[in-house]
């Protein structure tokens, strides 16, 4: 969907360069890990869909928020212990590098979860 991609480009461009670069890092991870996922705007933030919603991400005043659903947080609770989390979200502080390996693992997990859900339905 070309318009969603353009909308996400516009969304990211609203932020300062350093923050936009972090958002682009997350975007690139999801695109590489889930190449068939569709970029969308959902809840007024960038997101990806693949057999249902996969992940959302956005920037806040002091952190980058990643929203991999409650299952994505629960599955990585030990690795996420250094970060502030809630049922379906994790906050990565803006003053620290993003944990790219962990984000990749979380996206892979959500892809498998959505594909499995689709197999069970089918």
Mind sketching the topology for me?
Layout: H1 2-13, H2 17-33, E1 38-42, E2 45-49, E3 53-59, E4 63-67, H3 69-75, E5 84-86, E6 89-93, H4 100-121
Antiparallel strand pairs: 1-2, 2-3, 3-4, 4-6, 5-6
Helix pairs in contact: 2-4, 3-4
Commentary on this structure:
This protein has helices at residues 2-13, 17-33, 69-75, 100-121, and strands spanning 38-42, 45-49, 53-59, 63-67, 84-86, 89-93. The model has no long low-confidence stretch (mean pLDDT 93). The chain is built from four helices and six strands, in the order ααββββαββα. Strands 1-2-3-4-6-5 form a six-stranded antiparallel β-sheet. The radius of gyration is 14 Å and the shape is globular. With 122 residues, the protein is α+β, with helices and mostly antiparallel strands. Strand 2 and strand 3 form a beta hairpin. It has a single domain (2-114), classed as Aspartate Aminotransferase, domain 1 (Alpha-Beta Complex), CATH 3.90.1150. Helix content is 48%, strand content 25%.
CATH architecture: Alpha-Beta Complex
How much β-strand is present in the residues? 15-25%
Mean pLDDT: 93
Count of alpha/pi helices: 4
| CATH T-level fold name | Aspartate Aminotransferase, domain 1
DSSP summary, beta strand count = 6
Q: What is the topology, as strand order, of the major beta sheet?
A: 1-2-3-4-6-5
Proportion in helices: 40-55%
Low-confidence stretches: none
Shape: globular
| CATH hierarchy, class | Alpha Beta
Quaternary organisation: single chain
Order of helices and strands: HHEEEEHEEH
Q: Compute the number of structural domains.
A: 1
The gyration radius over C-alpha positions equals 14 Å
**N- to C-terminal distance:** 25 Å
Biggest sheet, in brief?
A: 6 strands, antiparallel
Which structural category do the helix and sheet elements fall into? alpha+beta
């Amino acid at each position: 969907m070309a318009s969603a991609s353009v909308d996400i480009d516009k969304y990211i461009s609203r932020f300062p360069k350093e923050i936009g670069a972090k958002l682009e890092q997350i975007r690139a991870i999801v695109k590489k890990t889930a190449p068939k996922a569709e970029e969308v705007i959902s809840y007024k933030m960038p997101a990806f869909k693949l057999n249902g919603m996969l992940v959302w991400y956005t920037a806040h005043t002091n952190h980058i928020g990643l929203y991999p659903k409650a299952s994505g947080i629960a599955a990585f609770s030990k690795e996420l212990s250094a970060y502030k989390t809630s049922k379906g979200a994790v906050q990565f502080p803006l003053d620290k590098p993003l944990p790219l390996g962990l984000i990749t693992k979380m996206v892979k997990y959500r892809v498998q979860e959505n594909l499995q859900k689709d197999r069970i339905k089918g």
